[in-house]
Amino acid sequence: MIIKIGGGASINLEGIIKDLARQEEPFIIVHGANALRDQLAEKLKQPKKVITSVSGYSSVFSDEAAIDVMMMAYSGLRNKRIIELCQRNGINAVGLTGLDGRVIQGRRNRGIKVKEEGRFRLLRDFSGKPQSVNADLLNLLLDNGYIPVLTVPICDEDGFAINSENDDIVNTLQEQIKADVIIQLIEAPGFLDNPKDQKSLVPELSQLELASREEQVEGRMKRKMLALKKLFESGAQKVIISDGRVDQPISDALTGKGTVIQ
To answer: Going along the chain, which residue ranges are E strands?
Structure first.
């Protein structure tokens, strides 16, 4: 299994790890830390800047200062707290960024086309797309009983740390690992027909519906729907988007709670 843990403030990390300790299937964790990053950025007086491309996809502008804050939040505090929870619950986990052993190798963006004050600009930062996975390293860990816990930054073609979307990282992992099930844990019961209505859960989606759903949503959710489409193009058979705030998030997802896409 690939377990993608969202970075929201209300995600139940302890519940997730305790639940994973009861699972028999091997797994890899990919986690976020966006809420923690935003808190640290405010304290350091370096608030994040969100940019939207002309095609309508939003992302965090990642200059050198933003990468520093990201490292503190993602690969520092959040990653090591997850490793601590794993060790407390009998999971012998190893925390890695994409830089470590070039486990996630990417290519830096050549520029993001945006429109500001009626003019088009090409913004370049330290962000990019994952291109390949060091499967030998991951299999070495898994074959010897270690659980990889992965997060950003990833490594660009010149060895620089770059930001990347965890959805894209999961897609690249899937191309190599061929997981049976991918579970995405978020701060909602699953995919919502109306983002403002927690009761508007869509229990099932087909791969073919993802394109129409992408047209329905905006901002970061638009990017997520695009990533889901690509995930199935990468060979995914089953993806479950489920609530990461509950007591037993993994068990709930595997018993059909949330949104099942297949």
So the answer is: 2-5, 28-31, 50-52, 58-60, 93-97, 104-108, 112-116, 119-123, 128-133, 147-151, 154-155, 161-162, 182-186, 204-205, 239-243, 259-261
Helix (H) / strand (E) element for 141: namely helix 135-143
Rounded distance between C-alpha atoms, residue 122 and residue 128, angstroms: 14
> What residue type is 21 in one-letter code?
A
CA distance 143 to 145: 6
| Predicted TM-score (pTM) of this structure | 0.92
Q: What is the pLDDT along the chain (262 residues), one digit of tens a residue?
A: 999 999 999 999 999 999 999 999 999 999 999 999 999 999 999 888 888 887 777 788 899 999 999 999 999 999 999 999 999 999 999 999 999 999 999 999 988 888 777 788 888 899 999 999 999 999 999 999 999 999 999 999 999 999 999 999 999 999 999 999 999 999 999 988 888 898 999 999 988 888 787 777 766 677 788 888 888 887 889 999 999 999 999 999 999 999 999 8
For residue 7, what are the β-bridge partners?
none
DSSP helix/strand/coil, 204:
strand
What secondary structure letter does DSSP report for 163? B
Q: Are 187 and 6 in contact (CB under 8 A)?
A: yes
Q: Is 152 exposed, middle or buried (0-12, 13-18, 19+ CB in 10 A)?
A: buried
187 DSSP assignment: S
Q: At the topology level of CATH, where does 2-34+74-104+129-261 sit?
A: Carbamate kinase (3.40.1160)
For residues 27 and 31, give the distance between their C-alpha atoms in angstroms, rounded to a whole number.
Answer: 13
